[in-house]
């Protein structure tokens, strides 16, 4: 049974900036529409994804150990970490806010670390295991990345509510900066990963596509 030709066999390449299908026989270097560099694979995809993910993991530790905000009510101030804030909201009956902070601050980064590690290891091993499922896993990582800033927005909302009361005040602490860095680096890691590497062709071609231009 015959199959349709692949984009590689036709020397076609999608521009990563504007999405135009470019003929590499005519435009070997740059996209004719937006002038962005053309390449079959994201350059140094695996190395950059590992670097961004390890940086995010390094920031994830102080993000959870350091206080993210200091709340003062009636002259009595207290620092709160992410987890202590979750417990405090839960104990005061605000289980919805506690759940949002827990999912966005602890569960989502953890899921992204595990999923990206799985994708990176299987790609580097040239595994053909569950390619369709791994592609769906990558799309899921991309999807949840859009909600990573939820708890930063919740902290801003809580700050606005506390400051609305004349006897209360709230100030950010270093933990919120580290968490912001975790969000940024996990998003960069997901953007740097090339999901086309999930579908192996041959080990030699795959390795060369990951590190160089055509």
TrEMBL record:
Presence of the UniProt keyword Cell membrane in the record: yes
Keywords annotated in UniProt: Cell inner membrane, Cell membrane, Membrane, Transmembrane, Transmembrane helix
Transmembrane segments: 50-69, 97-123, 144-164, 176-193
Subcellular location as annotated: Cell inner membrane
GO cellular component term, pick one: plasma membrane
Pfam families linked to this entry: PqiA (PF04403)
Record carries keyword DNA-binding: no
Protein name: Paraquat-inducible protein A
Superkingdom as given in the UniProt entry: Bacteria
UniProt gene name: pqiA
């Amino acid at each position: 049974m015959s199959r349709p030709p692949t984009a590689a066999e036709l020397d076609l390449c999608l521009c990563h900036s504007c999405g135009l299908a470019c003929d590499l026989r005519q435009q070997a270097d740059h996209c004719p529409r937006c002038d962005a560099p053309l390449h079959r694979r994201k350059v140094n995809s695996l190395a950059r994804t590992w670097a961004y993910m390890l940086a995010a993991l390094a920031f994830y530790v102080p993000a959870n150990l350091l206080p993210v905000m200091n709340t003062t009510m009636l002259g009595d101030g207290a620092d709160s970490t992410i987890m202590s804030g979750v417990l405090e909201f839960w104990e005061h009956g605000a289980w919805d806010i506690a759940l949002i902070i827990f999912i966005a601050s602890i569960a989502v980064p953890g899921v992204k670390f595990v999923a990206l590690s799985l994708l990176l290891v299987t790609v580097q091993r040239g595994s053909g295991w569950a390619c369709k499922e791994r592609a769906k896993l990558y799309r899921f990582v991309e999807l949840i990345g859009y909600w990573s800033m939820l708890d930063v927005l919740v902290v801003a909302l809580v700050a606005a509510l506390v400051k609305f009361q004349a006897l209360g005040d709230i100030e950010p602490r270093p933990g919120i900066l580290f968490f912001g860095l975790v969000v940024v680096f996990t998003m960069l890691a997901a953007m740097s990963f090339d999901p086309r590497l999930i579908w192996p062709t041959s080990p030699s071609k795959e390795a060369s596509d990951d590190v160089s231009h055509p």
